[in-house]
Amino acid sequence: MSVLTIPRYDRLEPGFQLPRRTFQVRREDLVRYGGAARDYNAIHWDDRTATEFGLPGPIAQGMLTMGLALGHLVDWAGDPGAVVDFGGRFPRLVPVPNDGIGVELTVEATVVEKLEQPRVRVNLAVRLDGAKVLTMPRVVVALR
After folding, report:
1. Which domains does the chain have, with CATH numbers?
2. Record's SUPFAM superfamilies (predicted)?
């Protein structure tokens, strides 16, 4: 990953786009995240259970997807406490095959509004194979 320049509120305008970032998500990432989040739902790691529930196979946790996207914003802002509000919806599943390769998620972020200093509203687009897997993102970042 390239080093991101930490933004200054007074030099930032709506329309500013962060560099696109990609994340490879493998089955073992689902297991690790599940353990850390205490989310032991087998639809996130077991093929049989996932297919019994009508899924194509194990799927990534929605909050894992959101966490990867927010991590990109945290890296940009230079402060893990910079994300002060977030939310969104997950309209599509992120199936993760057990092939050692997994899937690639693409994250794009654009500043859409300057709020009361030092906060900005950021629009996130998270995609899998070009299709959005996160919609209605609501993210507010407090800058320095």
Report:
1. 9-25+59-142 (3.10.129.10)
2. Thioesterase/thiol ester dehydrase-isomerase
